[in-house]
Amino acid sequence: MRLQRVVAAVVFVGTLLGFGTLACADITGFLGLAGGPSIRPAKGVAVGVGLVIVGFEFEYSDTGDDLSQGAPHIRTGMVNGLLQTPIALGGMQFYATAGAGIYNDELGILSETNFAVNLGGGVKRKLIGPLRVRIDYRMFRFSGAVIGSDIVHRLYVGANLKLF
Q1: Where are the alpha helices (DSSP H) in the chain?
Q2: How far is Cα 83 from Cα 11, in angstroms, rounded to an integer?
Q3: Rounded CA Rg of the chain
Q4: CATH number at 2-162
Q5: What is the pTM of this model?
Q6: 83-126 pLDDT, tens digit each
Q7: Are the CB atoms for 150 and 141 separated by under 8 Å?
């Protein structure tokens, strides 16, 4: 419950700060691995906007199932707040993130949709022009009658396009 309050406070403060001049926007398509109770593929997309230090993103993720290990198919839709370095350090922009949203996990005929929170961080590294590579780690905590594990870790690599 305390984690949910922290996430809500971060999103609230970020929303208040987010009504200034837009500094940048980006979109990321990603592939990765999620674990809990087994390691399986994950994919998704994130669209973000940001000021100099504070940013927001909307993310959709889809993690495959592993029936042999009892690991459900998981879909998440999250709204995340980001705190990021104001400038790239050595071509890399570091960030920490926290967010909340909904999840759906399915295993056979069982299905659960409920509230979820996440914490994580990562780095965006400039490649060429507006194209960057993004490496991101998240820890998700699911509430309700979770079919699989109530905590899932995800690591991904994505192609990130800085729009402006």
Answers
A1: 2-17
A2: 11
A3: 16
A4: 2.40.160.20
A5: 0.85
A6: 999 888 999 999 999 999 999 999 999 999 999 999 999 999 99
A7: yes
